[in-house]
Amino acid sequence: MLRHGHAPALLALDLDRFQTVNDSTGIATGDAVLLRVAKRILGAAPPGTIVARISGDEFAVVVPNGASGERVAARLLDLLGRPYAVNGFAVTLSVSIGLAVAPVHGSDADTLLRSANIALHHAEREGKNRWRRFEPLMQERATLRQSLESDLRLALALNKLELRRTMGVEQFEVHYQPQIALESGRLTGFEALVRWRHPTRGLVPPGEFIPLTEEIGLIGLLGAWVIATACRAAMAWPAPTDGPALHVAVNVSPLQLQERRALVGCIAGALAESGLPASRLEIEITESALIGDALETLQAVKALGVRLSLDDFGTGYSSLSQLAQYPFDRLKIDRSFVHDLTMTVDPEDAGTGARRMAMARWMIQAVASLGGGLGLTTVAEGVETEEQAEIVRQAAVTDMQGFLVSKAIPAEGLQQWMADFAMNPWRPRTPIR
Amino acid sequence: MSDTLCSLAYFSRNAIDGTPTELNREIERILRSARRHNPARNVTGALLYSDGCFAQVLEGRRADVEHIFEIIQCDDRHADVTIMHLHPVEERSFPDWSMAFAGIDGASAAPTVAGDGMQAPQNILATAGGRNLLAALQSVIARDDLGRLESLKLS
Lengths: 433, 155
Prior knowledge:
Chain A is of the alpha/beta class. Helices cover about 45% and strands about 20% of the residues of chain A. In chain A, the strands form three sheets. Chain A has an eight-stranded mixed beta barrel with strand order 8-9-11-12-13-14-15-16, surrounded by five helices.
């Protein structure tokens, strides 16, 4: 590959959603389109270019002069995206392209092709119809993804076999963050938060592995494990002497919500297996999940007797009228509003700071009053200071969670934390109204 | 099937950078090339140009129309190509034109082109269907101009 004396570039092309062309126009037309695609690639290729069809709708293009790789990629993106008139069909498609340049991204064909393919997958994940140049960071992500996938499969398989403790390979943990009633200071329950303790990487932030888990299609399995684990844990919590039993809130991904039968089945299974009363389980979903037939799914979940809570409220686009249709019991006010309540104002830009603080205050009051009107409880997330707790309490928000009371606690530390909290509880600053 | 008489209309945006004179010269080249290549495949049609936009009708045997369109398609002198229709027709709308040209508002072609078919759309010799088609294409272009004006006002 390098015998020409200068470094070539390799482009990996994948036609986006080509299957739909075959499905809608027939295979003969699909083939004719592929022929046109090949001709357009050849027509745009600089002299000396090698074009290969790798599989059904994938092509590889080796451009002899690596420096022109980006230009060729942009040209192909434009050209292949133009319409096709074939067998009486007007067909439009787009292409995703990954670009790798020798020798920096690989000095042999295998490595170069792997790099180009990794860049191609990035282009596809970013929404297709674009080209991306390989970056070493992509390799790291690909490696992490690979290790996550095998580790996750292993962890879940071992979990099923109940072997994980004896083998010492438990990597996923559920931590629990306390939720406190603002008027009484009483502990009402915990939000279950999954953590991945990687054997070599340590704690991997959820923001990093949850999206990966969704991408590789394992969120359903992980989600089911978290629900089952959280229900079992909640059964072991002592009953409070002065109020209702503690609840446990579990996050459910929008993707899980799309698999209604699987989701309803795993919630019902976790309740049955643990013996936890359904009323003690709360399912949290984000605003972004309220699409498609989410309403029917939520009603099916609700019919099990569990509580429903809307997470990160205020950051999405759900309208107030829409909100009233959903069977929610609880609204969680996004941490960004709580943060803005007492933000440090930049003296250079005091106007903007003051506006954001006022806006946050109004938002919180509006959500609390909306919740009150609809008969829902409201939880302020990310409460870190007494001052913030006092403001949200005055705004008639009913509950809070955040570092002021405690960060999320590993399961084995919970009993101790509860004992400590009973001895030294949080109390509102001013007398109860 | 590939013998079926077919009509294809598309709409695209001019991608030629340059002075009006250079633009006219390019359009002249496009027409010359069309008039040179289309008769061999018995493809007829009309090209409209108006401030920044092309609309073109191609008609002939389906395979020929698709072949010519593929060549036009990959031409860098235009972009954002949208196919408006591709369907069988009973008869040609522009039987007498290898490529009639209508420069609407102010796109004056060079005299050689003008003498060779530069016409106001209503003067192009076409069947009633052809005149309707030209009117439709014209309205698409006009709507696009309108859109552009709106966006200029907004910005």
